[in-house]
Amino acid sequence: MDIKGLIIDLDGVLTKDKALTPFPDSQDFISFLRKKNIKFKIATNNSLYTPDNLVKKLNKNGIKIDKDEIITPLLVIPDYLRKKDLKELFVIGSEELKSFFISEGFTVKNSTEVKAVVIGQDKDFNFEKMKIATTSIKENNAEILALNKNLITKDDDGLLFPGVGSVASMFSNATKKDYIHFGKNSDEYNKKLFEYFKDTPKNKLGIVSDDLFTDLKPFKDMGIFTIFITTGKYKVKDITEDFKPDLIVKSLSEIVDKLS
Amino acid sequence: MDIKGLIIDLDGVLTKDKALTPFPDSQDFISFLRKKNIKFKIATNNSLYTPDNLVKKLNKNGIKIDKDEIITPLLVIPDYLRKKDLKELFVIGSEELKSFFISEGFTVKNSTEVKAVVIGQDKDFNFEKMKIATTSIKENNAEILALNKNLITKDDDGLLFPGVGSVASMFSNATKKDYIHFGKNSDEYNKKLFEYFKDTPKNKLGIVSDDLFTDLKPFKDMGIFTIFITTGKYKVKDITEDFKPDLIVKSLSEIVDKLS
Fold it and tell me: A148 and A239, same structural domain?
């Protein structure tokens, strides 16, 4: 196992809840990668926090990283919006998400007169928002832009809810218009991710994630070494015939042992 | 045009808003059908009102019909629930909808410990309901039961929102579990509808509706004479190559003229 570059999932891998509480061995893992000169990027679908705040919170919680060591959908979508001249947005998501788009120079409106409906996680989702989004898309031809294509998500209280991708597909079904996303394995996201690793050969790249289906399998298909960690939402019993990860570990420390 | 039985859509055909305000010629149309001995059934996907209240409101608004002249998803779903012994329900929908299930002997719970998630139109839809529904389905294997499969719906303020079918498909995507529905063209609904017309040959049956795609086309495929009325959500320009109705009218009075 000769790994020179590592893609690291965040939720369920380095952190265990929405407050970004780290696992006990998360910082040791990062320190080990630095010592071994293994280039890494924390690749997340998180859209609750801005990239800046995500880095701040992780550092405060003891996971010491720089901003260029992280990639989130919010580091990807602004380029797309500018390229397509989509300036006026209806945003389904946290107040922090709305502030992010405003700080990036976009206009966030609570009306159907917009060019795009941006969909992130939203604990204040309601009927009024459904109406504004649907009408913007159907009557004003607004684009449907999902921050990721996650099907299902777990809240801190243990309850499940439809992921951003499932919410986007509801609007897509209603309006008969496709949605595009900016999460892991979207064209835009992966382009940015692999630019970062452009000096690392694909066969020296690894990924560690708790998500068998939307993370590990697609990266395996690209020839990347896949490490399945069971600290997150899936367990060993969830592995199907369809895809076997290259390595299964119970903790980040176990990866350190293997790479030492 | 020899019509002996007529299926009549409600919303956009006999009535024009959620308060069930009739078009000026609605009652004359019903009176004409009675005089000509044309057997009719008002077939709606409405799940905001109980069948009893729907009949009461129509009568009060001047459309004089009996309960056996109407069919709604709520006249169909209780049999299914009893047959499958699904007694405990989480209901997404109006307070009237919840009361209906209670009056039919079911237990309506605001928890994930249920056997089925019943989905109707809900102007108080929110994140909390999304969590209870998703968790019930994924963790407790609750069935996803949609009252109809409408893709999109228009509110009285002119804004559009995802139809019951689109909301059901969101939960279906999130949980990787299919949903079934009880609206027009579901097995259960059509079985009840065609029992009513069992003495009328299919080639003497007609349908009048404002919905080209989910109403008229499937009934045309069954050999039923299709009358497209442009008083509702679709216009003549919405007709595609895929399906041409047998007759296009601008009002119910025009049908009276043709059938006289």
Answer: no
Termini Cα distance of chain B: 10
Sole residue written with tokens 């002996």: B4
Per-residue pLDDT at A156 = 86
Burial class of A257 by CB neighbour count within 10 A (0 to 12, 13 to 18, 19+):
exposed
Residue B234: predicted pLDDT = 84
Residue-level pLDDT at A132: 98
Distance CA A6, CA A258 (A): 14
B133 Cβ partners below 8 Å, 6+ apart?
A: B90, B92, B117, B119, B171
pLDDT of B214: 83
Q: Is pLDDT at B65 greater than 90 in this prediction?
A: yes
Q: Inform me whether the C-beta atom of residue B5 falls under 8 Å from chain A C-beta atoms.
A: no
* Complex ipTM > 0.85: yes
Q: Is there a contact between B127 and A122 if contact means CB atoms under 8 Å apart? A: yes
Q: Tell me the two tokens of residue B37.
A: 């001995």
Beta bridge partners of B6: B40, B206
Token readout for B193 is: 């509808």
Residue from the list A122, A152, A170 with its beta carbon closest to the beta carbon of B175:
A152
Contacts of B90 in chain A (CB under 8 A): none
Q: Which domain holds residue B195?
A: 5-72+184-259
- Residues B153, B223, single domain; the answer is no
What does the block give as tokens for A222? 């690209």
Question: Domain end: A154, A181, A208, which one?
Answer: A181
What is the C-alpha to C-alpha distance for residues B245 and B226, in angstroms, rounded to an integer? 5
Residue A104 has pLDDT above 90, yes or no: yes
On the 0-12 / 13-18 / 19+ scale of CB atoms within 10 A, B170 is buried
